[in-house]
């Protein structure tokens, strides 16, 4: 599972201007960002976000060989079953897909943010929806595989490290280090 650390991006899609007078960041997000289920027409943008997020946001935490293999570990078509099942959601900001996530009861499977939209609350908005979906479980536990890059982000949501391991979603010829994390409902 991955969420790119929220950093300021450089090139690519425009994520809107949040400098409106008198508006707070949260008010900006509520009016500017839309979240919807992904469609087949989104595949190219989803693939671009996946590859750029890994290449640009995870590079400080992984070596170049891992980054290259990781970028190539998931084909665009691999997202079709998640789209057809209605479990892949996209955040739209400034008219473009700014990030996406996949969540099922008990697990946040994936969360990727465009480098251009990092630091604009896209990850937070998607993580909040992912938590809502994933919390629909009897055990009250939600698990995820976090990149080394995203651990501090998930800790802000109350996730804690359970163990370290290697990416289990997708296909790669090399091992991609992850931190296995869990969140347990206080009501369980």
Quick structural gist:
This protein has helices at residues 25-32, 43-57, 64-71, 80-84, 122-134, 151-156; strands spanning 34-37, 88-93, 96-104, 107-113, 141-146, 160-166, 177-184.
Task: Explain what this protein looks like in three dimensions.
The chain is α+β, with helices and mostly antiparallel strands. The protein has one domain (25-184): Aminopeptidase (3-Layer(aba) Sandwich), CATH 3.40.630. It is built from 6 helices and 7 strands; from the N terminus they run αβαααβββαβαββ. It has a 7-stranded mixed β-sheet with strand order 1-2-3-4-5-7-6. Helix 5 links the parallel strand 4 (107-113) and strand 5 (141-146). Helix 2 runs antiparallel to helix 3. The longest helix has 15 residues, at 43-57. The two termini are 24 Å apart. 37% of the residues are buried.
